[in-house]
Amino acid sequence: MPNDPPSTPLVAMGRRGFLLTAWPWRAVGYLLSTVPVVVTAGVPPALLGLPLLSAVAPDAALGERVFLAVLGALLVSGLGPMAAIPLARLERSRLRLVDARPTGSGHRRPPGRGVGPWLRTRYTESATWRELGYLLLLAVAVPVLYTALLSALIFQLGALAAPLILLGGDGPMALGPVKAATPAAALPYAIAALVLLPAVPYLLALVAGAQAALARALLQRGSGERLQAELVEVARSRARLVDAFEAERRRIERDLHDGAQQRLLSLTLKLGLAQVDLPPDSSAAHSVADAHQDAKRLMIELRELVHGIHPRVLTDRGLVAAMGELADRSPLAVTVEADLPGRPPGHVESTAYFVAAEALTNAAKHSGADRAGMVARWDAGLLTLEITDDGAGGADPGRGTGLTGLADRVAVIDGRLLVSSPAGGPTLIRVELPCDPNDPSSR
Amino acid sequence: MRSERSVVQVVLAEDGVLLREGLAGLLAKFAFDVVAAVDDAVALRAAVAEHRPDLVITDIRMPPHFSDEGLRAAVELRRTDPDLAVVALSQYVELSYAADLLDSGGGRRVGYLLKDRVVDVADFVTALRQVVDGGTVVDPQVIRQLITRRQDPLAKLSPREREVLTLIAEGHSNAAIGRRLVVTDATVGKHVRSILAKLDLPQTDDTHRRVLAVLAYLRGSPTAPEAG
Hints:
Chain A is of the alpha+beta class. Chain A has helices at 9-13, 23-48, 50-55, 62-94, 115-124, 126-167, 183-196, 199-219, 223-277, 283-309, 312-317, 319-329, 346-367, 401-412, and strands at residues 173-175, 178-180, 333-339, 371-379, 382-389, 416-420, 427-434.
């Protein structure tokens, strides 16, 4: 967008009024603060690289040279990252001087706590080595580049001041390749320097911008790392959404159960008691009896509704009991085999339950089956649930949203849903969910 | 001694305030004496120790954990005092709970009912009296589930016999079954004998022992129909 505030000096240079913005000053600040970093960054490679330097010493034998060279290379590559990682972090924060965009580190999060996992992660990821490369590059290139830049600036200032200095009578003065002895001779140079004065901020911004671009390219996440980080974040947020959805279902179920259902039960009981008090065959008794019947029907409806939101038996007694209840409710003859060492974590339990419920419902509604079976097993960190029916088959995840929705739910917790349903049956739906039983989390 | 009391003394344990008050009102109306109404299993044990009631009505799930504290307390109380009548109220059918309770104290003086059953006031009170008088009361819903689970061998029964079996399991005597189905006692007797024979159950005229036998049969593990 052309009207956005520029994010780097290179962009800002192309805008009108560049000289009046803070950008030239930011560039100067960036360049000046680079110097101590380069000095610091130069020390470790210089120290670690000493054997390398002595390897090229003229009076050493070949064996010694090879040994020193290898030792130097080992030292630089072995201990270099230790110096590079903190310096690179400093460089990333310094980048804010000349770059408005946020900069993320390309480092991965170590898999565990402690020094071992951290070291393993850091030494095996490309981000660390890019940082080391950046700092070596900085240590080599910056002294050369800044010296040239400083010489140019000094030359310009000298040319600008030359007529005044020469007026004072100190002559002749060297201006680069030429010598000027009188103010008049120095004047063209001074005028040229004056005309070129506005170019100085541009030059500084150019150098700062180029250096920042290099830093950005080497110190930030690469596109693959960025994509991976985004994927991880998407997966996490999806899991969070599902968890929140699950928690919400439980909350609604609990609220309805503790509130509306209890009240309705109490109300129905009161109507039942009122019926006892009224003379039989009076019109009041009939009205109350009607109301009592209605209330009972409403109790059943509400119970079914709440059960659909989240079955209480699942919360209370776990997956095996809930599967038994599913079998009891199903119009089909359902066998249940369950062999679980304990209760899986809550979200795994719910997912498995809803898969089983959906599969049984489909079998009863669409397949024409009259028998179904459910088998739940846990083995080596994997909960496997298989639902079979002897119906006509032809279940297609692409056709209904039911199976697709289930596959999504299963995928969120890193599980797999497999459907085998040839025409003519039988249908087998298999879910594999990684989990540890007896894990009380998220319950 | 309990048997000398004219009024049945009840300890009531239920954590839902509304239902507890409703039940207390219902019991008072039907001349039960509610000596204590508590809201958790610990208080239930204390109240039973203190009042030595004839009947305990308890919710199965109660604070603090809402697992099966009420049921476990009931089973324990029956172990120390098999004459204590206990009716457990449950939110939903849980066959293993019903089984635990029926296995305590030889299955006499126990009831397992769904909470929703209390709204049919007259039936509920009848069930309570049956339990106090030494009977076994199991919620029809439980029987229905047991029967669906044991569909296979029950296929041998005629629809009418299955109806009769359900009523036996619910604890009705031959006379009561006859009244329900509007048939003579003799006809009921014939059905009952036929059922017991078909299911290989001991022939007995003792209603209670027959109920327990039928329940035990129904609770037996079903032979699995082959899936797939």
